[in-house]
């Protein structure tokens, strides 16, 4: 493959299955004043995997280059379609598309979290996908108006140290982690996007008062805080903390490196919100007239790409008929809660306020 990539480094920067409904997109818009400056000053390095003079497919990716770069490069190699990729945080890229309006160069928006996609859909920035693309996923994994599809999912779990705890000693629900004997023993990552997605979903399913009290109790109990999921799994593995709330795949990656680590995932059952599924999504912008955009989304849902995600990133593939990696348990859709995931785009600002006001940090 010739050429080079176009990259914007991220500045920052989770099962419930979506029952989606229209949203107004006001919550994410309230971040414009805070994030606009970040968007405008992000460095842009142009890159193209294409022949000179050929039209390129422009991708705005909220998924990191280390996760999706190999798939995008393989798409270029397999199809000969030139690509430009702009990497960044999903919310910032969604705001950028909104700011660019009809002049956005983006053809495809590939989001780490569904809220940013819901924001763009609510503002008529996304095109309706063809029926044959929508048919590649189950109905619950596509937008109600056909403006996006889910590509992969990451389930929220409780990772725990088997040297200090047995499974029957774990909390029955994520809502019980602040009760004795668990209080102060469960690590969280308040500044991490997946934790914030979880809190937003908690607000949706249990109400804001429950979410506020849950966060305040976490802080009052002295819950250990870390910067990200990796740091939590590492701390659990070495016995620094007993348990932590993370996405499922982090511990599987650690165990691939060292199968003897005493860390295991526990999935909350019975429809508990602690088993939230956070989907990555892909969509075509409303102004794109590039026919290759559809081909890319079809490629992301193809067997080869889905197997890459399953085996290499340990995510759950969401294309119809695809199975997770052999070392992952099947995704039990009957045990995960359904939430209005589009509302994460409107509720993020309030979630950040609740986390900040709770006194959690990290």
Please state roughly what percent of the residues sit in beta strands, choosing from under 5%, 5-15%, 15-25%, 25-35%, 35-45% or over 45%.
Answer: 5-15%
Low-confidence runs: 1-53
Helix proportion range: 25-40%
The helix tally amounts to: 13
Distance between the termini: 41 Å
> What's the SSE pattern?
EHHEHEHEHHEEHHHEHEEHHEEH
Annotation keywords:
362 residues, alpha/beta, nine-stranded mixed sheet, two-stranded parallel ribbon, 13 helices, globular
Commentary on this structure:
The chain has 362 residues and is an alpha/beta fold. It is built from 13 helices and 11 strands. The protein has helices at residues 26-29, 32-41, 65-79, 90-100, 114-122, 131-134, 193-206, 208-220, 229-237, 248-257, 292-300, 303-313, 344-358; strands at residues 17-18, 56-61, 82-87, 108-111, 149-161, 186-187, 243-247, 263-266, 277-284, 316-317, 338-339. The strands form 2 sheets. Strands 2, 3, 4, 5, 6, 7, 8, 9 and 10 form a 9-stranded mixed β-sheet that branches. Strands 1-11 form a two-stranded parallel ribbon. Strand 2 (56-61), helix 3 (65-79) and strand 3 form a beta-alpha-beta unit. Helix 2 packs across helix 4 (90-100). The longest helix is centred in the N-terminal third of the chain and has 15 residues, at 65-79. It is globular and about 60 Å long. The chain starts with 16 loop residues before the first strand and ends with a helix.
């Amino acid at each position: 493959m010739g050429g080079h990539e176009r990259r914007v480094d991220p500045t920052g920067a989770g099962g419930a299955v979506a029952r989606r409904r229209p949203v107004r997109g006001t919550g994410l818009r309230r971040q414009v004043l805070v994030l606009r400056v970040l968007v405008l000053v992000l460095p842009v390095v142009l890159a193209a995997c294409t022949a000179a003079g050929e039209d390129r497919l422009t991708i705005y990716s909220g998924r990191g280059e280390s996760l999706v770069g190999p798939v995008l490069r393989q798409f270029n190699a397999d199809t000969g379609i030139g690509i430009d990729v702009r990497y960044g945080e999903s919310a910032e890229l969604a705001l950028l598309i909104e700011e660019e309006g009809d002049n956005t160069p983006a053809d495809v928006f590939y989001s780490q979290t569904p809220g940013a996609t819901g924001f763009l859909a609510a503002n008529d920035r996304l095109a309706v996908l063809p029926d044959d693309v929508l048919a590649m996923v189950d109905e619950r994994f596509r937008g109600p108006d056909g403006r996006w599809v889910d590509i992969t999912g990451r389930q929220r779990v409780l990772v725990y140290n088997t040297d200090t705890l047995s499974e029957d000693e774990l909390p029955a629900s994520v809502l019980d982690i602040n009760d004795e004997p668990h209080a102060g023993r469960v690590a969280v990552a308040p500044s991490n996007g997946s934790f914030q997605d979880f809190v937003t979903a908690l607000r949706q399913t249990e109400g804001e008062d429950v979410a506020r009290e849950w966060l305040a109790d976490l802080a009052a109990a002295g819950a250990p805080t870390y910067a990200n999921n990796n740091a939590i799994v590492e701390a659990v593995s070495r016995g620094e903390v007993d348990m932590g709330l993370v996405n499922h795949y982090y511990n599987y990656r650690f165990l691939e490196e060292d199968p003897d680590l005493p860390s295991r995932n526990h999935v909350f059952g019975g429809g508990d919100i602690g088993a939230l599924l956070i989907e990555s999504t892909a969509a075509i912008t409303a102004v794109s007239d590039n026919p290759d955009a559809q081909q890319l989304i079809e490629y992301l849902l193809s067997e080869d790409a889905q197997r890459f995600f399953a085996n290499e990133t340990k995510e759950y593939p969401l294309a119809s008929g695809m199975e997770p990696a052999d070392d992952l348990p099947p995704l039990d859709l009957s045990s995960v809660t359904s939430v209005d995931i589009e509302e994460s785009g409107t509720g993020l600002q309030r979630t950040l306020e609740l986390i900040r006001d709770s006194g959690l940090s990290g």
